[in-house]
């Protein structure tokens, strides 16, 4: 297992996606004027969400709903459960306010689409097959954690005339109809409805340019993450340690769940990666709307400056080795 881990780590660190991410970090630390226009960043984000959702829907159509429903249900329950254990750790172990602990827990229960894409690239590089319908897990894990996190935060805040039920309804609406969820689930349904024929018709747009667009997106992510490195002094040692410990614990939970529902080594790794990842697209947008009292320095720095680089460089090969061990090293 040690030699496999070293080999996988080397393959991951030398992949174009990770190297472009490193380039972005270096450019920012060197005070380069390299910067992406906001419309381009938004366009790249929308493309990646639509592409992975569409291809996942096609894969579900090919596999059949009977094969997908059980692991998808497990993914939903896992996404909702993660904030329930991370919240008390942050609240009482880290001494954070209730609203900050809730916001951070929502980020860690929700998922990172880019980390998931990097994981599928990693599996391709090491020639490990995986269940293509695993994109469905990404789609269904986005919202539950956000809803749970927002509810935890709302419970700790004065409601200013709004009932708790009204606050919860608003949180559910914001989590379910955020653009990332709408695009993922909508594209998933379109891919399922159009099937293989639809995949063939759109291959030149959703498949061929995908890797290059991912590389550009990760270059921008490297720029953004490096700008947050200075905030590590503000969030403190505890939150920085949490940003590494939480994905390790959550990744093991995801791997254990995936092995129980019968996924192969590749699908088991992907479930672990989703559980280990932290959202920095959907969750921040939801927190700005639903919990504006939460400090964005805390949740953005932990998710983007600590957890994302850790998962992208060290986490992926580690989760791969653990997944192979969990399913009997096939």
How does this model look, in words?
This protein is mainly α and 330 residues long. It has one domain (2-26, 45-326): Na+/H+ antiporter like fold (Up-down Bundle). The chain is built from 14 helices and no strands. The chain has helices at 2-13, 16-29, 38-63, 65-93, 98-109, 113-125, 135-155, 164-176, 179-206, 210-227, 232-260, 265-276, 282-290, 296-326. α1 packs across α14 (296-326), α7 packs antiparallel against α9 (179-206) and α11 packs parallel to α14. The longest helix is centred in the C-terminal third of the chain and has 31 residues, at 296-326. The radius of gyration is 19 Å and the shape is globular. The two termini are 12 Å apart. The mean pLDDT is 85.
What are its keywords?
0% strand; Na+/H+ antiporter like fold; 14 helices
List the helices and strands and how they pair.
Layout: H1 2-13, H2 16-29, H3 38-63, H4 65-93, H5 98-109, H6 113-125, H7 135-155, H8 164-176, H9 179-206, H10 210-227, H11 232-260, H12 265-276, H13 282-290, H14 296-326
Helix pairs in contact: 1-14, 2-10, 3-9, 3-10, 4-5, 4-7, 4-11, 5-7, 5-14, 6-12, 6-14, 7-8, 7-9, 7-13, 8-13, 10-14, 11-12, 11-14, 12-14
Strand element count: 0
Number of helical segments with 4 or more residues: 14
CATH class: Mainly Alpha
Main beta sheet:
none
What is the fold named in CATH at topology level? Na+/H+ antiporter like fold
Average pLDDT for all residues: 85
Structurally, how many domains make up the residues?
1
Share of helical residues: over 70%
Assigned CATH architecture: Up-down Bundle
Task: Please tell me how large the radius of gyration is.
Answer: 19 Å
Shape: globular
The ordered H/E elements are: HHHHHHHHHHHHHH
Q: First CA to last CA: what distance?
A: 12 Å
Low-confidence runs (pLDDT<50, min 5 residues)? none
Helix/strand class: mainly alpha
Percentage of residues in DSSP E strands:
under 5%
